## 1
Amino acid sequence: MRHPSLLEPQRALVVLVDVQEAYRGVLHGWEDVLRHVEVLLRGVVLLGVPLVVTEQYPKGLGHTADEAKRWLPAGTPVVEKQSMSCCGSAAFVERLQASGRRQVVVAGLEAHACVNQTVHDLLALGYEVHVPRDTTSSRRATVVAPAWERMMRAGALPTSVEQSLLELVRTAESPHFKGLQRLLKEI
């Protein structure tokens, strides 16, 4: 018997929020966040956990950063949006509902804007939301902590990339454990 808030590969879905080119060089901790996002993506692809990717106004902010994009499986849905919350996009909500998954790992940018509003809306829709802190940031470091505190108080579950992947793999007996171990050495 496992605790119901531990991530399960058959119940989980990862949402990558707006990790776009316009943030390169202006996001606080860009390189560190991007390294963690890459490991998260590679890990969930290895484990077969589905992904949904969003891009906020790509005409102005560019598309998903190449470092992240290269790890997305062919056919990974990319939802273009203009609302801060991913849930403001009907296409996003439809994809989420169609997945049948109730655990949502939310990673991406910016912590105080699109991530924060998406997390709150997902919680309001009854999803269990996990937020790996090492995959989120904002342009200004001072706005990250208040956003983080607010999301956690609303009911989001704090986590990290390593913790998320270890919950998803569950056991060293998994055929994917060694691959995940190698990935985790990169962060």
## 2
Amino acid sequence: MSVEILTPKPLSLKHLVQGARQAPSAGERPPLLVLLHGVGSNEYDLFGLASYLDPRFVIVSARGPLVHAQSGGAAWYPVTFTPTGLTADESFAVGSRDSIAAFLPEAAEAYGADPSQIWLTGFSQGAAMTIYTLLTHPDLVAGAVPMSGRLIPAAWENRADDDALRGKPVFSVHGLYDQVLPISSGREIRDRLQSVPLDYTYREYPMGHEVSNASLSDITGWLSAKLDAAL
């Protein structure tokens, strides 16, 4: 089935959308995969990965609701890059988390996807928001793939109870040589998420702050295997 880039509908977050490249079985609706970009980027960034991902997905790449002052790109919460590192105002993250939580079922309805099969993945700041949404709204998320992210303290402090998180599939990846969010950020995610009853997988790669061929291959394989088990 050919790639079909659809005309985005006027939803609460600006976005791009690719239709499923493999038609669902008769009477069934396709799963939805929502992509969340990093700070200073936009919805076009991760959309370049869409053709590599499982063809059963309708893929939506959303734009953060804020403007990043330094770059003019989009953001989920303010971040400033300085010579000594980055500073973040995470008080804005809860509002963006709420925007994502509202957008997920809205996008599923708009594009005819299965609302019980909404998967979420994000890179860098988008990974932080992926984790935040999963931990606080597990009823909305079938599974998640945070890439090269960090754990926002409020996401952990306000997480749902263990029963709501039990068995949710999560695959997080991080680069050993990440110069933006060091490997310690990935390992903090690992240590925290391993302590709750998720179906959790964590892997490290010899890469920087990026999506490598190896990490993308593992992510696509993991997503396909989890879809096989769920559908």
## 3
Amino acid sequence: MALHAIRHKHESVHGALLGKIVVNDSVQTVQVHSAVSIAHGTPTKPLVEMAMGILSHLLDSTTDVTVVGWYTAPLLANDTRPGPVALRMMSTIASTTTPSHEPVLLVLQNNSLGSFVKGGDSAASSIAKAFGKDFGQQWLQPIEGVTLQDSVVASRATREALQQDVILHDFVDHVDEEEEEESKVEWYPNPEIVKVIQNCS
């Protein structure tokens, strides 16, 4: 998510969250395993539908990993809440899940991300804020108790990817490259990012 936002720092970015939704004793836990960069700017409905269709096809049907939410990085540094595009995507994702499984929305906190990139005290765990559904049926309710498993590894991998200038292409970039017939960078999974994470684990 951080690499996506940094690559398109003058635009909003959007992507899908993959993982599992676990319900125990009516308490829901959303486990996010990976993030898939979809678009920068304002994505069109056909483009998002195409990306999500391809993503569904790529997901391993032998596991219960599925789309469990959406992430966004707002355009303006001081924006800390989700915008209309992210809220529309959450409604769409929620319509495809069972009523007992509510997806989650992660909003990158641009100021914390900027501090992290500059080597400040911000940890990777402070980069994103989670939102759930509020009484108005919008994903505007901040969620407390969000944890980042292996925060040290996540921070190290993100910094390493930035230092190595790892190329991350979202689905929009992927489609544009196909039209231009240039050398292609894998959209998902991105082997360079996978390699950095493995080396930092």
## 4
Amino acid sequence: MSGTEDPRRPVSSGSAAPPPRRSRSGSDAGAGAVAADASPAPPSPPSPMVVGPVEAGEPAPTTGRRKGRGAAPAPRTRAPWWLRIVAWVIAVPLGLALVGLPARNLGYLDSQKLLDVLIGKGSDRYLPLVVIVLLWALVTALLVQLIVEGGAWLLRRRRTRRAVTTA
């Protein structure tokens, strides 16, 4: 090594780097060497869940999941697009009514406070409106969640009832 070469620099033979080695699978797995730095094989997908009656004396089918308190929840499916749109169309005005009417009846939001928002001075004039809008957003989000989850539950229940009656 000459004095001008950097000792931290890798030494090259001048040719391009060889292509990465692939792990072999199947019948020729033992025929070649697997690279030591190869990443491990990806985990296999979970076994499908078997649904149906279990005969007496047979072990119950397992899915590889734990049972009980720490069990993983069942995979969720998305609610249909039309149900989500209906949920928002219903929840926005209903949320405003559920927040606005009690606020008006309790005196928190009256015509004078709304007029102060338009012609008043200072940033504190917006506080009643900000509180109402935040509560409206919270109530609307809760209503949408209830409508979508409840509607999806009803659709699943109806689908299982139809499957039972046609089977």
